[in-house]
Automatic annotation (TrEMBL), chains A, B:
List of residues binding NAD(+): 278-290
Localization: Cytoplasm
Residues where substrate binds: 93, 103, 127, 218
Assembly, per entry: Homodimer.
Cofactor: record remark: Binds 1 Mg(2+) or Mn(2+) ion per subunit.
SUPFAM superfamilies: Isocitrate/Isopropylmalate dehydrogenase-like
Cofactor dependency: Mg(2+); Mn(2+)
EC number, UniProt record: 1.1.1.85
Major localization listed first in the record, in broad terms: cytoplasm
Binding, Mg(2+): 218, 242, 246
Pathway: Amino-acid biosynthesis; L-leucine biosynthesis; L-leucine from 3-methyl-2-oxobutanoate: step 3/4
The name this protein goes by in its record: 3-isopropylmalate dehydrogenase
Domain of life: Bacteria
Amino acid sequence: SRSLNLAVIPGDGIGQEVVAEGLKVLSAVLPQDVKLETKEYDFGARRYHATGETLTDADLDELKRHDAILLGAIGDPSVPSGVLERGFLLKLRFAFDHHVNLRPSKLLPGVATPLAGEPQIDFVVVREGTEGPYTGNGGTIRKGTPHEVATEVSVNTAFGVERVVRDAFARAQARPRKKLTLVHKNNVLTFAGHLWTNVFNKVAEEYPEVTTDYIHVDAATIYLVTDPARFDVIVTDNLFGDIITDLAAAVSGGIGVAASGNINPGREFPSMFEPVHGSAPDIAGQGKADPSATVLSVALLLRHLGHDAEAARIEDAVSADLAERGGLPARSTSEIGDALAARVAG
Amino acid sequence: SRSLNLAVIPGDGIGQEVVAEGLKVLSAVLPQDVKLETKEYDFGARRYHATGETLTDADLDELKRHDAILLGAIGDPSVPSGVLERGFLLKLRFAFDHHVNLRPSKLLPGVATPLAGEPQIDFVVVREGTEGPYTGNGGTIRKGTPHEVATEVSVNTAFGVERVVRDAFARAQARPRKKLTLVHKNNVLTFAGHLWTNVFNKVAEEYPEVTTDYIHVDAATIYLVTDPARFDVIVTDNLFGDIITDLAAAVSGGIGVAASGNINPGREFPSMFEPVHGSAPDIAGQGKADPSATVLSVALLLRHLGHDAEAARIEDAVSADLAERGGLPARSTSEIGDALAARVAG
Ligand SMILES: CC(C)[C@H](C(=O)O)[C@@H](O)C(=O)O
Ligand SMILES: CC(C)[C@H](C(=O)O)[C@@H](O)C(=O)O
């Protein structure tokens, strides 16, 4: 009999609430012969305040033993900006070499978008996850004085760029439209820009069926609101990916339904799946948070581990639930979770 | 009698067409006693192909003698990406210390927006223009090999951050809502982020009437499409400003009406005014381009030089023209210019 050994990190704020629903749906969808084992970890603001720790080497050793990680949200106003982001979220992405940060955007029927008209939105962003301006390189001299200088160094390697570009081409090849767009700013960031552009063009030769184009990141934000239908797969650097995926989430129904995977494609380390939204302390503990983004992250997790049919059942359930939602009275976090669990089980 | 001594750089593509209309409106609005002198310069793709030059020291000495610079657009597909951007546009911003890159966004009545509902949009972005990832610092080793490493260094100084933050606070103080938002990514880019945040908080103490807040750049793109009314003045770094001002232009009527100023507030060097749109080679030479963004850039130019009443007349004319436009048959570039010139003269 098969097993799925999951590390669960509810985290802060609404993280607890949405993860509970994600697990509910996961249990409901898994075939009888797959044994689900979960172990919960208390990372986040409370642990930081209690122990000063964010993520230790021993923690990483523990997490490493699981097949995958499901995360709710990490972050709290009581912790200085950057501490949990650098000390937990980014540390985990770097330690487990999550170089493919996968963020699908699909505007589902019945879902409200801030865009006028009836935009067609169905694309996926492959964001590089271990390089660029996220490496923590840089520093400060003369801190706090009128002569302070602070630098941030974006580090880009042929190795790092090529592997994520290859992943994106493979994904584009597998989709009906077979289109891949590189988003960068190669007219200004010419060093990194040339590397990205050259690698992209080189790998493109191996994928003659994939249509390619290039768009500067500033122009990409324009197209995301005026013509999102032009995008199929986007590949981009870590920081540009961070920015455009929030915008992509906003136009395709909001961060209430945006899922993401921090993926190590070769499975040397467990991959981590999380909703794009944060811990939303303002609505935490009220049973108001929409668990759909977490549930869709569970679908990405299942697909990563090869449970494609179950992933599709979850996606269909969320789709059906959202399509009906306009007619439904407002439901709590757990009511939505119950409804989704019932659908995938049925 | 007073004079206005203007350097005019039509540039590439539609640049020629829109600048002609900008000058037409400028001539029509200027009081009789202001003598307008213009000198045209041939920077851009043609000059680059003919001479290999983009902007020489002698050119800078010439340009320096003018009160201001009006630019159409620079850029052509025949020139490799980065050559004119780094060699002309950015070189000029850096040489003339254009540290305030001013980009107002106002959704005018009658203007189409990709957003649903009737969003209220009236804010201005103060983008830093001489630092951040735009400095050209960084480099490449092992170029073209599987071991290539390319870096981009974002350079941020207390001097550079403080002067642009001060400029933004002064602008916020002068507006009815008196609100200033800092946009950065201080949870990840912690070195530069701390510098920006500390300087911002320090200067805020001198402006007790200005309400302040902070938003990460990724979240800012969400608010720009879901709640643009929350913004009054935004201050941000060079690259974040590049990205969010394209999005801001898109939601507030498109780059057809987005103006910008590359400003040296102390007037040690002439400031440069240009539409946010590029050279649009696909529609060049057809008399189709909307000159409104250039005309509004002329208004920014006039306000920078203290001709506030004339700037307001131009803005009112563009507003009135756009409000009427829905009812008008499509007009050519010069027909729109004529209409605006007639309005400001009347
Ligand atoms: C919280 C932060 C470190 C993170 C990022 O910048 O990657 C978040 O914005 C995201 O997109 O997952
Ligand atoms: C053309 C390019 C160098 C420029 C920039 O990145 O600043 C443009 O996008 C702009 O916003 O003025």
